[in-house]
Write a structure and sequence with these properties.
The chain is globular. The strands form 12 sheets. It has a 22-stranded antiparallel barrel. A 5-stranded mixed beta sheet has the order 9-15-16-13-14. Helix 3 packs antiparallel against helix 5. It contains 8 helices and 49 strands. It starts with a helix and ends with a strand. By secondary structure, the chain is mostly beta strands. It has 2 domains: about 140 residues, 3-Layer(bab) Sandwich (Phage tail protein beta-alpha-beta fold); about 650 residues, Maltoporin, Chain A (Beta Barrel). Strand 33 and strand 34 form a beta hairpin.
Length: about 800
């Protein structure tokens, strides 16, 4: 090209650039300022800069042009939350060698060779994106994890594995997170439905299929979940006839695989399910949802949060839930009311206190198990009930919590959490079937629990800090826990008979028979108090060459007393170590190994009302973790060998109530978990478990049997795609599948549960009216109407739901 031509072209380019920068400010200065300081909701994932800017345009309605050279090989940061447009653009390009510069009513993006600066010195010196409107208001918003609009399917940090906010890529244990967006897309109503998204976890068997209980890496969690790191069990373990925790106030669910005694004391060795609840936010947010679906299901939930005072000193959050639902099985229903207010006081920038309350009332008739006929569950319709229409129960559960924290400086802080939990449960006798014959006849019995109540008090104090010793960077956690529970039972007895039944000719009684008030085979009264305390020390050390080490030690002591007899039943203590080493040779890959010992939870009671010896366990684990695209897609692969002593199983000579410690059981297997965003708008969460060894290795007549309800192969996959632009913007489509291989029943190993595969679909559409966002959604679970069993006990197997349609309409602002 001739030099004169080149010079003319460059001059023309400079003139054009100057006009582009100047014209908007000359012809529409008032328009640029009008509405420019409005806060908007941005949901822009990390992606190539050009795509991110297109998403920015679609949200803000601003026209932004940019040369291809500026956006080439630049990946924008994610922007989730409420920001002004300028804040969103600043966040989008932060740390990318680009700066946002303002001139009058125009903004340009410029390349920077050094630190980002805020002023334009020469129009001729910049490489531009063209013009746009700007705003000047600044307002911070909560981090992405608590953002109600965060669409991510994964989290890069978790607290359950270490009691500190540690990157998962630097944690030498398997920790998985099910975020709020997954719960919304799948319309999760019960915790067990959320855990299908995590490898190595299955629904465990319990009375009436009415308690949150899980098998993690082959071992029962003992009808207990954790709430914000605090044990949150059902009353009297498996003697409780039903209490499933509500999901209305859940922010996310974290699942830690393997023993967790070092941090949580008497935990089950397979792992823990930790429910992380929603906390007050400084930015107002309100949401109302109405769900309706198959089998007369109706559920109304509300969520409200924001500041009480203008200076954000006092914040609140309130979650409400009312549910009225029938079932695919005759006589089964569920009614519940849930109220969860939280108040937070920001005493100072370094000191906060939170008061929380939860009240849950349930009134239900639980699902009846299907007795086995030979080595399979009896071939009865899913709608048929072996229970009785009058076998209802009610539960009242109240939790009061007071938590506070103080930061001494940027490195050291103190946290204290106190919870008090009060549960009462009662109702009519539960009916069950046994001795079923090929012609359809069966015997019926009843089981009654009277005066069931539990009071629990939990205190934990943790001191965390960071310091250096030479080239070693330490994150230290030191703390102690005190847990006291008093469990009462006036009487429990089994099994006054009912008239024989026949599933080919159903008939039911009009109410409990008179002789059911007379105890037979009584177990009670019981009044047990357990005092348990522990202290722990844990050090996470960042070593040279991207190595990370973790070492910890805990001492526990637990004493159980019979308050009626005035004697000590059990007095157990143990020192539990754990350690791990992780190497992160490159940013997207971590390799780790760990060893952990476990002081097991209380092992329940035998048929004489005495507690069994505590369970103990140890685990070896190794694996790898990967993340791609700035952490948008993460994966964990792990191999584990887990051994548990004093495993509780039914006493073959004293069924159905008798239990004994069997001796030892082991599980070995591999797990794979993947979650995140593959492409903008395309999100997925999936898992696979292969557990070839899950057997009783020492013990009674069940020696050598495979552990009950533990499949050798199982997995799930869930994926959604949300259209980002164009006329389909706001439309989201999703599909998934859950696959489980055949299993043995959990207790007597008398029958087999067939394997199954279920398919699920969803569709939603979101649109805005003013400041409000409306979302209409429909989910179809078990699309092909597969007949399957989710779990099995010595009393029988429990059907999974047939094809179920669940719709909802939600408004948030």
């Amino acid at each position: 090209m001739h030099p004169d031509t080149r010079n003319a072209r460059d001059a023309l380019g400079q003139i054009t650039l100057a006009i582009a920068l100047t014209l908007p400010s000359l012809i529409a200065p008032q328009q640029a300022l009008a509405g420019g300081n409005q806060i908007q909701q941005f949901n822009i994932p990390a992606q190539p800069l050009a795509d991110a800017l297109n998403a920015f345009i679609a949200t803000s309605d601003w026209q932004v042009g940019f040369p291809a050279g500026l956006a080439r090989d630049v990946r924008a940061n994610p922007v989730y939350g409420k920001y002004t447009p300028q804040q969103a653009l600043d966040k989008l390009v932060a740390g990318k060698g680009l700066a946002v510069r303002q001139t009058g009513g125009s903004v340009t993006l410029v390349k920077t060779a050094g630190p980002v600066v805020a002023a334009v010195t020469s129009v001729q010196s910049v490489a531009t994106l063209a013009t746009m409107k700007v705003t000047g208001k600044t307002e911070s918003y909560e981090d992405d994890s608590s953002d109600p609009y965060n669409p991510n399917y994964n989290r890069t940090n978790a607290t359950t594995a270490t009691k500190t906010d540690t990157p998962i890529m630097e944690t030498p244990f398997s920790i998985q997170v099910v975020p709020k967006q997954v719960l919304q897309d799948q319309q999760v109503v019960r915790v067990e439905d959320a855990t299908k998204n995590v490898s190595g976890i299955m629904k465990a068997g319990n009375i009436g299929n009415g308690v949150d209980s899980f098998l993690i890496r082959g071992f029962d969690t003992g009808n207990s979940v954790y709430r914000n790191g605090v044990l949150f069990p059902s009353p009297l373990g498996s003697s409780g006839f039903g209490l499933k925790r509500d999901t209305a106030n859940l922010e996310r669910i974290e699942v830690l695989k393997g023993p967790a005694s070092i941090l949580y004391g008497r935990a089950e060795p397979g792992g823990i399910v930790n429910l992380i609840t929603k906390q007050p936010l400084t930015s107002p947010f309100y949401s109302l949802q109405q769900q309706f679906g198959s089998y007369d299901f109706y559920r109304t939930t509300a969520d409200a949060t924001g500041p009480i005072t203008k200076d954000d000193k006092l914040l609140y959050r309130l979650n409400l839930d009312y549910e009225n639902a029938g079932s695919f099985q005759d006589f089964v229903y569920n009614k519940r009311v849930f109220v969860a207010p939280v108040a937070k006081w920001n005493i100072s920038p370094k000191t906060q206190a939170t008061l929380e309350l939860e009240y849950l009332h349930t009134h239900d008739n639980l699902q009846s198990p299907i007795p086995n006929l030979g080595n399979r569950p009896a071939p009865v319709s899913r709608s048929y009930s072996f229970g009785q229409p009058w076998s209802d129960e009610s539960t009242d559960d109240i939790l009061v919590g007071l938590n506070w924290s103080h930061a001494f400086n940027d490195n050291w802080s103190l946290q204290h959490r106190f919870n008090a939990n009060f549960t009462e449960q009662g109702g009519n006798p539960a009916a069950f079937a046994y001795g079923i014959q090929a012609d359809g006849t069966y015997s019926q019995g009843t089981a009654t629990v009277k005066g069931l109540a539990a009071d629990r008090y939990f205190n934990t104090v943790n001191l965390t800090g960071k310091f250096n010793t030479g080239i070693l960077h330490h994150s230290l956690a030191f703390g102690g826990d005190y847990y006291r529970t008093n469990e009462k039972l006036d009487n429990q007895y089994c099994c006054p008979p009912l008239p024989d039944g026949n599933f080919n000719n159903p008939s039911y009684t009009s109410g409990p028979l008179a002789d059911l008030v007379t105890p037979q085979n009584a177990w009670g009264p019981i009044n047990h108090t357990t005092d348990w305390y522990g202290i722990f020390l844990q050090d996470q050390i960042k070593l040279p060459f991207n190595f990370h080490a973790l070492a910890g030690l805990r001492y526990d002591n637990a004493v159980t007393k019979d308050n009626l007899l005035g004697n000590t039943i059990n007095d157990d203590d143990q020192v539990s170590p754990r350690g791990g080493l992780l190497w992160r040779p490159i940013q997207w890959l971590s390799l780790y190994g760990s060893y952990t010992e476990n002081f097991g939870a209380s092992n329940g009671f035998n048929n004489s009302g005495k507690t069994l010896p505590p369970q103990r366990a140890n685990q070896w684990e190794m694996g790898s973790k990967t993340e791609f695209w700035d952490g948008q897609l993460t994966a964990t692969f792990s191999y584990f060998e887990l051994t548990k002593q004093n495993l509780q199983t039914p006493d073959p000579n004293n069924l159905p109530w008798g239990v004994i410690p069997v001796g030892e059981a082991q599980t070995h297997g591999v797990e794979l978990d993947v979650a995140g965003e593959i492409l903008p708008g395309w999100r997925m969460i999936g898992n696979y478990t292969y557990m070839p060894f899950a057997k009783i290795t020492k013990g009674n007549d069940l020696l050598g049997n495979r552990l009950g309800n533990v499949a050798e192969n199982m997995g799930s996959l869930w994926s959604t795609y949300e259209f980002q632009y164009g006329k389909f913007s706001g439309l989201k489509l999703g599909a998934g599948a859950v696959a489980v291989e055949g299993r043995q029943d959990a207790d007597t190993h008398d029958y087999q549960l067939p394997g199954y595969v279920t398919m699920n679909l969803m569709a939603s559409y979101g649109w805005k009216i003013g400041v409000s966002k409306f979302t209409a959604q429909v989910n179809i679970d078990n699309l092909l109407d597969k007949s399957y069993f989710v779990t099995g006990t010595s009393s029988g197997a429990y059907y999974g739901a047939p094809r179920t349609v669940l719709g909802s309409i939600r408004v948030s602002f």
